[in-house]
Amino acid sequence: MSRAAERAIRAETPNADQAAARGRLEVRGVSKAFTVNGAPIAALNDVSLTVRPGEFVALLGPSGCGKSTLLRLIAGLDRDYKGSIVQDGEAVTGTSLERGIVFQEPRLFPWATVRQNIALGLKNAPISEADKRAAVAAHIALVGLDGFAEAYPHQLSGGMAQRAAIARGLVNRPRLLLLDEPFGALDALTRARLQTELQRIWAHEKITMILVTHDVDEAVFLGDRVVVLAPRPGRISRIFDVPAARPRARSDDDLVRLRNEVLRTLEHDGAADPQLSPGSRSDA
Amino acid sequence: MSDAILETALSTRRAFAARGWREWSGTMMLLALITRAKATAWLLIFPAVTLPIWIIGSERGWLAEQILPRPADVLHTLNEMLASGELAQHVGISLLRVLLGFAVGAGAGLALGAAMGLSRRVDDHVRPLFTAIAQVPALAWIPLAMLLLGIGETLKIVVIAKAAFVPVAMNTSAGIANVPRALVEVGETFRFSPLQMLRHVVLPGAVPPIFTGLRYGLTHAWIALVSVELLASSEGLGYLLVWGRQMFWLDTVLVAMIVIGIIGFASDKLLAAVEARLQRWRTDGV
Fold first, then answer.
1. Residue A107 to residue B189, Cβ atoms within 8 A
2. What's the main place this protein lives (chain B) (predicted)?
3. Most buried of A33, B1, B5, B84, CB within 10 angstroms?
């Protein structure tokens, strides 16, 4: 990112440090059931989790463990659940500009340019048109898409489209950014590069991020904590602290050791459920 | 390494944007022209084959002149009718009927289609009746409509409107209901109001099916026009057809057919152009 863009983003939030004190999320006793062919299926069973302001939490688990479901509940896209979800003292009762979300598919509007797509995120933001324009430009720069502002989604590569989606998720300056397997559909090189970029953006923005993934390396590389979920019904099986200093290197011995430990937990969870093969990486 | 590859790709595209764009778009335009020319050539094959057969056939008297007049005669009649203003009068009245009927029918179709596409409730209540009405062709409504409305202009407008209404309503409701849920969710995360959702997500997403409906609607409006003018009119292109047949003026019949075909083709192209304009993002750039 250019220095000018960084300055623009800073100027827009003079109280960035104050904002950093927010973004606390409390999930208490959340259960969620779907009805399949008339029979209720438990997707989440009594999940409780507290996320600190500015923390990076990775929700890790095999397909069907309910991690994406949990993220949708936090986002406010699904209000049909038991338990409570509270962000910064306010109960989540629907979607909010305080919570940005990046989906697995970029979900850009195909009829709008990158700039228009990001600007649409600000439609209901209580700031002036000039500030909106500045914010859009700053976030295009933040994700490294300068020069592509006027491109349409079908002209972008998968990685570029996902960058645009990240910019769109951040443009409202939410206190919490939710990421639902955002790099799952990308090739390995692009994925690695975007993981590094996300780490940089997180450090720069100082906001809380919750990342859903089934990629152990990704979870360990990015997370302050890795929350391992087990399936049927979806529940928290174990929480790992990742003490490694940032910025991190993938080859860090501590990270590699932790990665193996997380993998063992996943295999153990899988072994308890005969229907699930350990290390299964199929998409949810 | 990935960085290097990406940077190369980025700088290549930037270079394109800076220097090569004009040449690039020039090349693309030339390619588009060639494609265009090829398509036109294919279009002309059918007339190129049938026209000589028609000319030779009518010269040699394969069919009686009363049944298949010579192309030269048809052309002559066309010129005559153009010069006398007779053709313009018939075309004018028919165009007016189609435009009025289409405007009423398509307008109502858009409104009902949007209501059915947006609201489960409206759809549940209205669709059975709508489907039943849609299944009865516009032509079959004419006898009843005649008794109710007489054989004046109202009858024609109503029958044409009905013909345009059905495909427009059907495609609009399907198009709106099928806007991807994933994109609607994005709108929800931005806290879009219902109006914003309509303006920024639903309508842009439903443009292709809505236009398919409008084009079908216009075609059906033309068909209905000819039918209703055949039955109850003393002017217009449909009337020209009936009158020409009764008088055994097959050249007049052919002129009317050709004019109907040309106008229908032109109006469909016009709608296609409007649609392309609304969907520039599909073709813009590479």
1. no
2. membrane
3. A33
Whether the predicted pLDDT of A1 surpasses 60: no
Kindly report the nearest CA distance between residue A65 and chain B, in angstroms.
Answer: 21
DSSP string, A174-236: -SEEEEESTTTTS-HHHHHHHHHHHHHHHHHH--EEEEEES-HHHHHHH-SEEEEEETTTBEE
Does B276 contact chain A (CB < 8 Å)?
Answer: no
More confident residue, B151 or B122: B122
Q: Are residues B52 and B152 in the same domain?
A: no
pLDDT in tens, A4-35: 555 555 444 444 444 445 889 989 988 898 88
Give the residue from A199, A175, A183, A200 showing the smallest Cα distance to A87. Answer: A175
Question: In this complex, do A95 and B189 lie within 8 Å of one another by their Cβ atoms?
Answer: yes
Residues B133, B275, single domain; the answer is yes
Say yes or no: A190 contacts chain B, CB-CB below 8 A: yes
Is the Cβ of B13 closer than 8 Å to some Cβ of chain A? yes
Where exactly are the structural domains of chain A? 18-112+157-272
Per the document, the length of chain A is 284
Q: Tell me which H or E stretch contains A89.
A: none
CB atoms within 10 A of CB B46: 9
The structural domain count of chain B equals 2
On whether both B109 and B224 belong to a single domain, the answer is yes
Residue B252 belongs to domain spanning: 71-283
Interface probe for B, chosen from A68, A71, A98, A123 (most Cβ of B below 10 Å), is: A123
Whole-number pLDDT of residue B22: 56
